[in-house]
Amino acid sequence: MADRVQCEAALRALASRLDDLARGRRPPRTPDRVIVCRIPDLEATFSGHLRDGCLRDIGEGERPGAQITLTVSSDDLLAVTDGTLSITSAWASGRLKIDASVRDLLRVRALL
Predict the structure, then answer these.
(1) Strand partners, 36
(2) What number of other Cβ atoms are within 10 A of residue 94's Cβ?
(3) Which domain holds residue 59?
(4) Is 96 helix (H, G, I), strand (E, B) or coil?
(5) Rounded-to-integer distance, Cα 10 and Cα 73, Å
(6) Under 8 Å between Cβ of 48 and 62
């Protein structure tokens, strides 16, 4: 089981990859979104803001008004963020749960 520090580092690595992608293209015209990532096996929650295709302000704790909520185990979070587990496979197998509108679901899938 991964720990909180590893999970936060994985989310920050994902944010860095999103920043790199955003530099190479025109920023998407999408509304800002609050994203929450719940990690039940650690009883931890991280959240951040998705703005202009970049994930910002990552920190531990849940922010109110989240439009996108991810629920994933610590090990699966690391596997998804390091590329050893595809987000589609994780979602299809139930290892990753996403609570979001259809439009937001498609946005998140396109980013990951």
Answers:
(1) 47, 69
(2) 7
(3) 4-111
(4) strand
(5) 13
(6) no
- Write the CATH number for 72: 3.30.1050.10
Pairing outcome for strands 68-72 and 33-39: parallel
pTM: 0.85
Provide DSSP, 14-68.
Answer: HHHHHHHHHHTSPPP----EEEEEEEGGGTEEEEEEEETTEEEEEEESPPTT-SE
**Structure confidence by residue, pLDDT tens digits, 41-83:** 999 999 999 887 788 899 999 988 899 999 999 999 999 989 8
How many Cβ atoms are within 10 Å of 4's Cβ, its own excluded? 14
Domain count, the chain: 1
CA dist 65 and 17 (Å) reads: 25
